[in-house]
Design a protein that fits this description.
By secondary structure, this protein is an all-alpha fold. The chain is built from 22 helices and no strands.
């Protein structure tokens, strides 16, 4: 057979093949375009039903694929839930440390239910496997949403999965999608609000929690059975937005319906808000300073105290912040900074707490001691003398130290030592005062008084 004949036969086969492809494909397309007409339904109605079904459920092929993705996602979600429970169980067995304990109180309990396990045990191998399963489930649910955007279940399952993954911003957006068609479900409003709260979208959280309360009252018709966590979290959201009046009112409303454990937590929160008469920012700065001090971030602590002082509302809170800052400056920065701050605090507030005077006195005494160690007795005198002008437990001790430093002036020594005896002294301080008086009176040739204090010293010994 010639090369031309072979080429002709090959070309003919190709033409026939392409013809079959186009014809059969067209036939298949034609069949796909046809609408199945159920018995008892006219053709026009069947066409309308098919159009409606595609609008509601997408194409049959997409719906089938979406159902397959949903089943896979649900399987992975169930796996993640089992692994998460196992991880939490193992964490409780591993130790009794508070970071591994089951969270207490309604706020922490809800966090756990919604997948926020940051207050529970550290991530373990099982919890990591759980997160992997949840991430895989989320992929399947997203794919189902892409295939059939109008389907109601995929976004709901995706939102629940995102809660477990702590991806709060996307979770809130997904709940909003769900709520477009399910506005009458108070629990969904709560979940949306909680996700918004965790994503720091506080205004959205307030809207969501209030909506959850309103929908519950409309659908259930009674407030007494309203889940109290709705009130508690709404109050928390008000706190995050520094609306102290609304926060306090809502917390007090929640207190009426709270369990004993929740009541204790709510009362602590109310007390915290009222520390500066509703100055929530001030309390936050104070707590931030405390944390920084514990972590030995003293520069951050000082800045937090100063920020709190800038926004403080009450004199009581102002004095406490100044006092704590003065002690921090005295111990971790320049002692004279703290001393000067304490002096100003006491001078401006004659009725300041005794605790503050006690601190100032100790600071004066301690700094004078350090100055003496550096051979600076002259400056030390100033701080001992300052310590004698404060009503504190070491006032007499400062007089003893002044008497000791005035040993080269017997009259001054007697004056200071005698004054020291008017205060409560330790045995060692009393012994020092008696010895100073005995020696000073000897130098003054006052033998009667010398023998008096020698006898007192011998009796003490």
């Amino acid at each position: 057979m010639s090369r031309y004949s072979r080429y002709h036969i090959s070309f003919s086969v190709t033409v026939v093949f392409l013809f079959c492809v186009f014809i059969l494909g067209g036939c298949a397309a034609s069949r796909r375009g046809q609408v199945a007409v159920p018995q008892g339904v006219d053709t026009t109605t069947a066409g309308e039903a098919d159009s409606l079904a595609r609008l509601l459920y997408g194409s049959p092929e997409a719906e089938t694929m979406a159902e397959r993705e949903m089943e896979r996602g649900k399987d992975d979600f169930a796996t993640g839930e089992e692994l998460r429970k196992l991880a939490d169980s193992l964490a409780r067995v591993e130790g009794r440390d508070t970071t591994k304990a089951k969270p207490r109180g309604v706020i922490n309990a809800v966090r756990g239910l919604l997948g926020d396990t940051t207050v529970m045990s550290p991530a373990s191998e099982e919890s990591l496997r759980a997160m992997t399963a949840f991430r895989t489930a989320a992929k399947h649910f997203r794919r189902a949403m892409e295939l059939v955007p109008q389907a109601p279940d995929p976004p709901l399952w995706l939102a629940a999965t995102l809660d477990r993954l702590l991806e709060w911003a996307e979770s809130a957006k997904t709940y909003r999608i769900v709520l477009q068609t399910r506005k009458g479900e108070h629990r969904l409003w709560f979940n949306y609000a909680y996700a918004s709260l965790q994503a720091a979208s506080y205004e959205a959280a307030i809207t969501g929690f209030q909506k959850a309360i309103d929908v519950y009252k409309l659908t259930e018709g009674q407030e007494v059975s309203l889940p109290n966590q709705y009130r508690i979290f709404l109050a928390d959201a008000y706190t995050r937005t520094y609306q102290d009046g609304l926060a306090l009112a809502t917390f007090r409303s929640a207190l009426t319906f709270a369990s004993s454990e929740d009541s204790a937590q709510i009362l602590r929160t109310i007390e915290w808000i009222n520390w500066d008469n509703g100055g929530i920012r001030t309390a936050e700065y104070r707590d931030e300073a405390f944390r920084a001090e514990r972590e030995r971030r003293f520069g951050d602590a000082r800045r937090a105290y100063l920020s709190g002082i800038q926004v403080v509302r009450t004199q009581a809170a102002m004095q406490e912040l100044e006092w704590r800052l003065a002690m921090l400056e005295f111990t971790e920065f320049e002692p004279t900074m703290g001393l000067d701050r304490m002096k100003n605090l006491i001078e401006k507030n004659p009725s300041a707490k005794q605790e503050y005077r006690e601190s100032f006195g100790k600071m004066c005494y301690g700094y004078a001691q350090s100055l003496e160690a550096r051979k600076d007795a002259r400056t030390a005198l100033s701080y001992y003398l300052q310590g004698t002008k404060l009503e504190w437990s070491g006032q007499g001790a400062c007089f003893v130290e002044l008497a000791r430093l005035a040993a080269n002036d017997p009259a001054k020594a007697v004056t200071f030592a005698t004054r020291a005896l008017d205060f409560s002294l330790t045995k060692e301080q009393l012994r020092a005062a008696y010895a100073i008086l005995e020696d000073a009176y000897r130098q003054q040739n006052n033998w009667e008084m010398m023998r008096k204090y020698r006898q007192a010293l011998e009796t003490l010994n």
